[in-house]
């Protein structure tokens, strides 16, 4: 079992930056991949970025060059979001994968005003 808690969301103007943080507790050493997903109203949840234990990263095309995911050991994952756009507005969820089982945080709201 893993528990995930996100922080760092908020309201920002277009072109601004935010840094999201996620802290894991529980069976953290069993976590392989950690990532960030987002869900805008009326849309499906989508992958933003993920990072495996070895450090390889994967980004959605829509955020490449603007967002950076990083990981601090087994316990924390961050999402640095720069050059934010109104279309980045969504609830952002932290995700952890343990042998194919996904765990989710409760989400943090990011609102980008134009």
What descriptive keywords fit this protein?
four-stranded antiparallel β-sheet, single chain, 11 strands, 59% strand, 114 residues
Topology:
Blueprint: E1 2-7, E2 10-13, E3 18-26, E4 33-39, E5 46-52, E6 57-59, E7 67-72, E8 76-81, E9 90-98, E10 101-104, E11 108-113
Parallel strand pairs: 2-11
Antiparallel strand pairs: 1-3, 3-8, 4-5, 4-9, 5-6, 7-8, 9-10, 9-11
Written overview of the protein:
- 0% of the residues lie in helices and 59% in strands.
- It has 114 residues and is mostly beta strands.
- It is globular, with a radius of gyration of 13 Å.
- The mean pLDDT is 95.
Would you tell me the structural class of the helices and strands? mainly beta
Give the helix tally. Answer: 0
Q: What share of the residues does DSSP label as strand, in percent?
A: over 45%
Radius of gyration: 13 Å
Mind describing the biggest β-sheet? 7 strands, mixed
Quick one: overall form?
A: globular
Q: Which series of helices and strands comes N to C?
A: EEEEEEEEEEE
Termini separation comes to: 40 Å
Poorly predicted regions are none
Q: Helix content range of the residues, please?
A: under 10%
Query: What's the average pLDDT?
Result: 95
How many DSSP-defined strands? Answer: 11
